[in-house]
Amino acid sequence: MSDRRLAFNCPTALLALAALVAASVGCGDGKLRRYPVSGTVSVGGKPIEGVRVTLVPIGGSEKLQKERPSGVTDEIGRFELTTFVRGDGAPAGEFTVLFHAVSPTDAEQARRWAKRPKLDPKYRRPDTSGITVTIGDEATELPPFEL
User: How far is residue 45's CA from residue 52's CA, in Å, rounded to a whole number?
Assistant: First the structure.
């Protein structure tokens, strides 16, 4: 009798495992499909830390229009975009790119960032940024942004 119960539960367990795997990779989560997106930001040829890079959709679905994938540059000017959960990337589409300096979170950051160059305010608004990118349905390394 125990062999029958094991045989009955095996397909059920496999289905549950398949559903769990599908959910963990973002399939069927009801959200836009995202693709890994990363890049670098520099000013005057030098990497800049502590800059938030934000994508604002140009056109696209109503669902896409609600999202603003973003990421913050690290000490070598590198960022990875997040839409819903850290590092999940960005949906496919065409976007205007915005840049703005974030505030330091501790004394060490404040010391390092005190000497970073100021960003032109035009990069903070979609109508004046002048920088656009297209994200396809694959992992994307954006061209370096030189501000």
Answer: 18
